[in-house]
Amino acid sequence: MSLKRRHFLMFMGASAGSLALQPLVQNGQKLSPALEGTPASAQTATLPFTPVKGPMPVETDGVSLTNQISQYSTFAVKDDVVLPPGYTYDVVAAWGDRVGDSRFGYNNDYISLIETAPGEGFLVVNHEYISSVPWNETFQQVIGKPLPVAEIQAALASAGDAGINAFALPDGEPLKATIAQYCEEAMIDLGMSVLSVRRDASGKWVRTNSRNDRRITGVSGLKDGRYLKTTGPAVAIFRKRSGQGYVDTLGDKVIGTFNNCSGGTTPWGTVFSGEENIQDFVPEAVFADGTSFDPGKKAFIVNSEGVDGTGNVFGLAGNKYGWAVEVDPSNPNDYGTKHTWLGRYRHEGFGIRAVAGQKLAVYSGCDRRGGHLYKFVSDGTVRDPKSKSNSRLMENGMLYAAKFNPDGTGRWIALKADTPVDPELPSVHVGGMINLPNRPDGGFSKVTDDGAIAAYKSRFKTLGDLYVGNAEEKQGAILIDAHYAANAAGATCTARPEDTDLAADGTLFIAFTSGSPSGSDGSPNKFVFKAPAGESQWEYGWIVKLMEDGNNTASMTFKWDVMALGGEPADGGFGFANPDNLEFDAKGNLWMVTDMSTDKHNKEVASRIKSDGSKVSQSDLRGLYGNNSVWYFPMSGANVGEAYMFAYGPVECEMTGPFVTSDMKSFFLSVQHPGEIGGVRKQMKSETRRFAMRTTDGKEFEQTREVPIGSNWPGKQPNDPPKPSVIAIRRISDAPLV
């Protein structure tokens, strides 16, 4: 039994039989001792599926240690969703498919199925951002109408790196109209889709195209009057007619939703969507009164990484984006409500806990380097967890940010005016920097000197000193500036908290994706997010569980522990990198998908030492892991404590939004941005690359890997356009998944 599994059993409170668990200290953390145990081949024999073989040897692949080098010396990457024998998948919806009076959007992410009857319901899907290379290359082929790509590229080439401030161009200027046309098509491909679906007699999910089918796009309301609604204190800011910064004069109405990444499903049948990287589309920074920076601060740019500044030409107010959006798929007239008590930051997944007789709690993470974990607690009490009246509970309450202590305890800090200013010191962070609200100019500024913190605290005693307005307006401004307010209040800067999901007993599981620093955003607290052998950072991520003291949703203190560690098995990791979305199935098993940066997929690592004698960075070593993948963690039974690869995705894609149906027979997944860098795979082109791999016990060997260049998924025929799509995985036998 491996060290990792013994630690997992202790973490879960499970029994390891009659073995005495003597503590082992590693890097200051108490773990259980590694003992000789059942070989991997015997463990996999008890699994309900045969694990998929990825490019890296892992302890659960059924390959003995003595055979790892011979069996992994070559590997061929497939441009497909690769599943265990006996499983298949069906494409439910793909980019460009008709949805209501619009089309299925691009880069689908979070998925939720709201079941209205057995095998029938509403599929709600997020659409996050635009991958410029395949989108520009295939738009006309897929959508069937021209896109002014050449004109846009020529104008941007003339403008240079600064991009184009289309907002400042006069109405009637041809270039402004061209940019508006291009950006409107991009915004239509973002937001959310609501699809009516059912499972047919063969087990395949098909669309039924009901009156509920609709798109909520990045420009809903711009021309069609389908504005999104708002609740909470930030509405007082939205209704301002003037202020320190930019005001759009729309009041409490909002044009569209975009950068919709992960989400959550409520017990009462609504779906939450998180607006994540809005800083790419509109200015993130705000003034002390909560009003936005001018739209011109985020210029329109198209490059190989994406399409940025799409809100610029429309004059969108940045303070209206970065929120939690709730949608009722059963109401065809509902185009979403932004609940501002839940805070404005780079939202990822939501854990919604509704317990009769307790306050409603909504958990979410801010997916940036140095982002925080948050909890909203309602003023009112839940009576019936399945009542749609619970949505009203989010109109009044308090938002808290988590303070993690290295000893496994923690507390919640209220983001309100009388909360003391007490930031973490820059030196406790991996990158040695923290961003704090900048006053009187607005926005935020980097602090790298520990000595500057004392001066900051002397100048600003409470959060209320950093914001202006009456009591409601100050609270609204704090929520609008939640990340920077939480920095000022002393919340723990963490390692990119992507998804949050709740187990049946109320335990919160959090995927912390990456412990590397960012020179602009920040980095995690190095005393909380420890690398396994004392490294200064840990790129590969953690899965953590958090238990509220007293198991009460309104508790202000908690306990936490690390469940699983990303990284190579030889370093103590489970064999995956960058854990992202989490999903519990009806049996309590945990599913996880990874989120490695596309430019690292299958990036050649011929040697772990560079020509100058330095080590290859942890970031670049992610090339060893191949494509993004799907993992299964049994939470009970003979295989508890192990991690098994269930699938990997097409070339240059991210596997996102896992959702397992209540009958355990279908597993929905979003395949996001196939071919993001290479675009269309032409004439089935591929190339051979070399990788300095290691066995699970650390012996280095060379692997020759065949890597497709670009993608043709899901059509899979030569020169087919790569299309983001939602799939449903099932057993061919129609048995439950596991």
UniProtKB/TrEMBL annotation:
Residues 1-20 form the signal peptide. Residues 696-726 are annotated as: Disordered. The keyword Metal-binding does not apply. It comes from the Bacteria. Keywords: Signal. Pfam families: PhoX (PF05787). Residues 696-705 have a biased composition (Basic and acidic residues). This is DUF839 domain-containing protein.
